[in-house]
Amino acid sequence: MTDPGQLFTKDLCDAVGREALTSRLSEEFVLADVGADAVRSLLTFDDLNAVLSSCAPEPPRLRLHRDGSPVPVERYTEAAVSSRNPRRVVRPEALYRELREGASLVLDSVDRMHPPVAAAADDLMRLVRERAQANLYLIWGESRGFDTHWDDHDTVIVQLAGSKHWQVHGPGSRPYPMKNDVDHTHTPPRDAEGELQVLWEGVLRPGQVIHVPRGWWHTVTGTGEVSMHLTFGFTRATGVDWAEALVRRLFDEEVFRRDLPRFADPDVRGKHRRELAARLAELAEELDLEDFLAERDARFPRRTSFSLPWPVQGDPGPDALVEFVPILAPPLSRADGKVSVTVAGRRYRFPEAVAPVLEVLAEHRRLTLADLAERAGQEQERTARAVSALARHHLVLVR
């Protein structure tokens, strides 16, 4: 059984090759087999039962689909009140009935409910350097939950249990369609006879992984047995994101804050437009992709997690486990005897002595305090003080 926190950066990269994988992301279909052992610890039926019981997800986070249409929530939930707020509670017996009759269960953001899936999602985020979310799909029989469709984000599908039949048809009529798009006439690819094109067809079994790029049409059906898989979705930065970042910079420019000369002569309006265009071109030249992506990484969110009692009381001991919170390792900047990091859009400054601790944690992510001190070349007492400071700012967890 392998570490779910290395499912993508190690297991998948070992199977495909890191450079081969990253160069094909969002552009090509990818099939790999990381082995059933690599996915066994992600999510079992016992784990799923525990999540459904303890987290009590309700629609639309948990929902059922059958033959391309949503199952009415009244068929498997009932009205309830929690802390004086109305909600829908899933009725186990009704859920079982719908699943026996061919419904597909979808559970969104299971990475926020089950730590091993969260570890795998974080690992994918470190590989693609984009935000990711994991949804669960569960079905029995030969039915299908959804019609032939495409997704507005890139997906990595990991088969956990049973099997599922896939047809991947490829990109449709609109290259790189987006969620918020101006053209929604995106049709699937067809051959000369008008039949759906099939680029790949096969049955996924536990440990097999596929990557389906954004906008690629696909058809998924049951094989007669159970199927449980995770879909990890992520949205890559596009030119639109770069342009939006450029627009945000325009608020610092007086010429863009100025009112448009609506009632001026055409010559005056033309001159103003040329001033806007010229300054816009200058700013576009200044905002290169490296700077844009660095700014995007600096705003990358961190998971909400807690580390009581250590951020409130005392310093941890040598056996305490220290875990780095930022998903992407932030660059360090040094000035005037201080070290600075920017995480989730916030800038933090610490004494220079904290820098070796940050560097070791960024590389190894999880260590005992004693190991951390040794790798950082510091006394344990000094490292404990640094860890306490980092914990108070939600940059490390202490267990």
Automatic annotation (TrEMBL):
Residues 103-251 form the JmjC domain. Signal peptide: none annotated. One of its GO terms (molecular function) is metal ion binding. Coiled coil: none annotated. Its cofactor is Fe(2+). The keyword Amino-acid biosynthesis does not apply. The keyword Metal-binding applies. InterPro entries: JmjC_dom (IPR003347), NO66-like (IPR039994). It holds the Pfam family JmjC_2. Keywords: Iron, Metal-binding. PANTHER family: MINA53 MYC INDUCED NUCLEAR ANTIGEN, RIBOSOMAL OXYGENASE 1. This is JmjC domain-containing protein. It comes from Nocardiopsis algeriensis.
